[in-house]
Structures are given as structure tokens and as C-alpha cells.
Amino acid sequence: MRKIGYHSTSEEQGMKILSQKIFFESSEKNWLGKGIYFWGSSDICNGFDEAQWWAVKYKKFTKYLIIEVEIDSNNFLDLIDNEEHKSKFGIIKDRFIEKHIEAGKNVQDFEEYLIFKIIDNEFDFDFIIAFTHGSDFRYRKIGFNFNVVTRPQIQICVKKHNCIVALKRMEI
Q1: Alpha-carbon distance 126 to 35, whole Å?
Q2: Please, which residues have CB within 8 angstroms of residue 40's CB and are 6 or more apart in sequence?
Q3: Residue 25 pLDDT class (50, 70, 90 cuts)
Q4: pLDDT digits over 57-71, tens only?
Q5: Among 12, 76, 79, 105, which residue's beta carbon has the most beta carbons within 10 A?
Q6: Rounded to an integer, what distance in angstroms lies between the CA atom of residue 129 and that of residue 42?
Q7: Looking at residue 127, what DSSP letter applies?
């Protein structure tokens, strides 16, 4: 399966990525766990636009690059189109939340990245792809949850660098 993703970063870091062909991995506490993150596209969201939004609005870079990559692998967790994957993920998530509550913890304090940490340890996926909620982070940080998704985003988290088969600098 081939996927196109967009990575936004500072101009300085972007030039290093383009010359060395090596991306910085995020920590395990990000949306889909540890890995290299890219914005994906679909009929309802544009990965390039989301990468630009992330660079300008969230990171507040004055100088930034967007790098387009081609990701190629048949070994991935698809939480968008694969019903079996979504069902298994839901079962794992429900079990973790139950254990969290049984331990006397508040469900609002549950951190979803813990599920992906277990998935990373038990499975050998090259990447994970999922819709994420891109609403205003300021409100989510204080515990306000949204039911209406006004900014659907696709995140692609690459776990294995070798499935990135091409990259290029995009014009902004």
C-alpha cells in the first residue's frame, strides 16, 4: 500500500532531513505512539494544508518546510478503512479503560498513547494511519471535550524508516 504524507518542520530541521534523509522520531506520548508523523489526505481533509496549519498556527514557525513523502508497506494498522483493525483496536482500548477505572483512576485522565505503546511492543507494524481530532488544543488541554469534529485530520505514524521510499520539498 502506498500512502503520501506531509511533514512540516522548521526550515533548519527540514534542510537536515532533506540532506540526510533521516527524520526525528517523536516520543511515545504522541497521538499514535512513537514514530515519525505525517499528515495524510482524504476526501474530507488535505494533508498538505494540515501540515501548513501545524507549522504556522500550532508551532508558530516563521520559516518552515513541508516535505512530501511516499510510504510503501503492506504491514500497517489501518484505523480508517479496515473494519477488522478498527474493531480490534476498540476491544483493546475498552480493556485498557476498564483496567484504568478498576485501578481507581478517573477515565478523563486516560492517555490513549498507552494503547499504542502496547501495540508497538506486541506487533511489528511499519506504520499506523488514523483519523485524529484537530480541534483547538487550548480547550483539550484543560479537559474540554468536543463532540463535533470541525477539523478532521489524518495522521500517519511511521514506525520503520525503511518504508519511506521517496521524499521531496514542497513549494509553500
Answers
A1: 10
A2: 3, 4, 5, 6, 47, 129, 154, 155, 156
A3: confident
A4: 889 999 999 999 999
A5: 76
A6: 12
A7: E
